[in-house]
Amino acid sequence: MNLYIRLLLLFFKIKRNHQYQGLLDTVDIDYKALPTDCDINLHLTNSRYLAMMDLSRTWMTERVGLLKQILKRRWFPIVNATAITYIRDIKPMQRYTISTKLVGWDHKYFYIEQKFHSARGLHAIAYVRGVFKSKKGVISVEEMLEVAGFEGKTPILPTEVMHWKEMLEQKKVNNLPK
Question: This protein's superkingdom (predicted)?
């Protein structure tokens, strides 16, 4: 239930947003770890990280000026893969920031980096691979970049993302029916 309230609050924040950033800029959003976000170990539960990442990517989409365009076209985001490393716990009632950044793309997928941090330091870092879809299928990277008005150079993917991509491909190959 508390995520529905956070989603509603995010929609109000989106409605009032008049500041936009570049497609490759880092977008920050602040949260507080509520008691309902925490598990019996008295820290943010692992599943909540992923849910908060979803909200943060929605905010990033708004801040880079894409949300209205995506909604108008009835596109929807699909996460294909996520890798997260937990570094330091987030305690109940602790304030933290999620920094979300589009770090690049390939022929099919977008790659996003998300960092959880606070005054105590870095808590977690995650990479998300995804696409946008419509009823007709996957939206091409080229079409998405055109809608975003991006005319810059394609960024070089970070080394850790390249290794992650290779690992994902190997997982797929190793698990195909023989």
Answer: Bacteria
Phi first, then psi: what are they for 66, rounded to 5°? Answer: -100, -20
The whole domain housing 54 covers: 2-172
pLDDT in tens, 141-171: 999 999 999 999 999 999 999 999 999 999 9
Determine, yes or no, domain membership for 166. Answer: yes
Greatest distance between any 2 Cα atoms in the chain: 54
- DSSP string spanning 19-35? ----TTS-EEEEEE--G
Q: Over range 36-47, report the average pLDDT.
A: 95
Residue 33 sits in a domain of what CATH number? 3.10.129.10
CA distance 31 to 25: 20
d(CA 173, CA 21): 38
Paired tokens of 171: 């997982």
Sign of CA dihedral 99, 100, 104, 109: positive
Amino acid at 161: V
Question: Has residue 178 been placed in a domain?
Answer: no
- pTM across the whole model: 0.93
Alpha carbon distance 120, 96 (integer Å): 9
User: Rounded to an integer, what distance in angstroms lies between the CA atom of residue 176 and that of residue 9?
Assistant: 43
